[in-house]
Design brief:
Elements: E1 19-20, H1 31-42, H2 53-71, E2 80-83, H3 86-100, E3 106-110, H4 115-126, E4 131-135, H5 145-151, E5 156-160, H6 174-184, E6 188-191, H7 203-206, E7 210-214, E8 225-229, H8 244-247, H9 255-293, E9 297-300, E10 310-315, H10 320-329, E11 332-333, H11 349-353, H12 358-361, E12 364-368, H13 375-393, H14 397-412
Parallel strand pairs: 1-11, 3-4, 3-5, 5-6, 6-7
Antiparallel strand pairs: 2-8, 7-8, 9-10, 10-12
Length: 419
């Protein structure tokens, strides 16, 4: 136990339990996927572009992985482009479609996208390569499909709306947006990094033309992801230098990563229903417990239309980073938002877009559950979190003032004991 532990409430002589609740940032690699990765790094190590037997074995494994990844979303294997991860896939979708578009250079997206989308849009604007419309969301982080329809113009090259938000877990009305885009002849891209393997996705039913996915969110290895590109959708490559990935991405393929990704994808699809039931039960146990045991707290995101493993709270009168450090001393790993911006002092752009004032947004914590999360883990969090919040609020003059005002208002009410 480190020296800072004494600042927290005692655990009656017990050592802290280790609880990992940051699966939205990354997941542990499944043993089956790790074994596959190791095999194609040490035994079947051929270059998939080589014509000899080593290369043919690697190519066969690569194409099997492509089929496994595609099957989860009802796609054809040749519509899957392996890339280095979700960030590259988002860049490829945005830059590639705009560069190849015959319609124009206008992009429609939302204010709550992952920074891989938002920063790419901002750079395209700076470079004079695109004009971007950023749509608002409501207090649950949901975009209105009617806003999407109104934003589409004759020169709109792409609509990009994430499938589910990585911070607050809200699942967007993807099917409605897909129908709108299809009716207007505009390609529809969705960043499904958090949703892939967690909720059912059928690209044909939902009208999706491009879809971003990442291996390390589904218990596969880091450094590998994919972009689904519907057959016939024009996308200009980002990287040149060879004919890899059917001319869509140059560079020697990360065969071992792709094979591990494929194994993880196949298992995620097979176990999806059981995993979802398990996570929803634990998620709701956590949400209900926090809301019942702590005052001045709000759940961020849609209450039911959210990812099975996501719970995001704003605790008033305390800093989220202080909560995270205190939880860490209790063995609990959580996050203040997306992992890519966890070191930033700026309030979450997602919470700001939802209308949360900065002082409330700064007190936000994201807890994302995983397959190994248990009821005992959740109960442990519900045991240690309320004392942490009480201790931090005891140092807050704003909390003391709010409590005093609340007591005064209660006494002033009829029958409340006021004079």
């Amino acid at each position: 136990m480190n020296a800072g532990t004494s600042a927290a409430e005692p655990l009656e002589g017990r050592a802290p339990r280790r609880v990992y609740l940051d699966h939205a940032a990354t997941t542990p690699v499944r043993p089956e996927a790790a074994e596959a990765v190791l095999r194609y790094m040490t035994e079947e190590y051929g270059n998939a572009s080589s014509v000899h037997s080593y290369g043919r074995a690697a190519r066969e494994a690569l194409e099997k992985a492509r089929a496994q990844v595609a099957h989860v979303i009802g796609a054809d294997p040749d519509e899957i482009v392996f890339v280095s991860g979700g960030t590259e896939a988002d860049n490829m979708a945005l830059r590639g479609v705009v560069a190849a578009s015959s319609r124009g250079r206008h992009i429609v997206t939302t204010r709550i996208e992952h920074h891989a989308v938002l920063h790419t849009c901002e750079e395209l604007e700076k470079e004079g390569l695109a004009e971007v419309t950023y749509l608002p969301v409501d207090s649950t982080a949901t975009v209105d499909p009617d806003d999407v329809a109104r934003a589409i113009r004759p020169d709109t090259a792409l609509v990009s709306v994430m499938f589910a938000n990585n911070e607050v877990g809200t699942i967007q009305p993807v099917a409605e947006i897909g129908r709108i885009c299809r009716s207007k002849g505009v390609p529809f891209h969705t960043d499904a990094v958090q949703a892939y393997g967690a909720v059912p996705i059928d690209v044909d039913v939902l009208g999706i033309d491009l879809l971003t996915i990442s291996s390390h969110k589904i218990y596969g290895p880091k450094g590998i992801g994919a972009l689904y590109v519907r057959r016939g959708t024009r996308v200009r490559p980002l990287i040149f230098g060879g004919g890899h990935e059917r001319g869509r991405r140059a560079g020697t393929i990360n065969v071992s990563g792709a094979v591990g990704f494929g194994v993880a994808a196949e298992l995620a699809e097979k176990e999806m229903d059981q995993r979802r039931r398990h996570l929803v039960a634990l998620r709701d146990r956590l949400i209900d417990g926090v809301l019942a045991s702590i005052d001045h707290v709000r759940l961020n995101g849609h209450r039911t239309r959210r990812l099975p493993n996501n719970a995001n709270f704003s605790f008033e009168f305390v800093e989220g980073e202080s909560i995270l450090l205190s939880l860490d001393m209790r063995g609990v790993a959580a996050s203040s938002g997306s992992a890519c911006t966890s070191g930033s002092l700026e309030p979450s752009h997602v919470l700001a877009a939802m209308g949360l004032p900065p002082e409330v947004a700064h007190g936000s914590v994201r807890m994302s559950l995983g397959t190994q999360t248990t009821e005992e883990d959740i109960d442990y969090v519900l045991e240690v979190l309320p004392p942490i919040i009480r201790r931090l609020r005891a140092m807050s003059p704003l909390y003391a003032e709010a409590v005093a005002k609340g007591a005064a208002a209660s006494e002033a009410e009829p029958g409340g004991g006021g004079k």
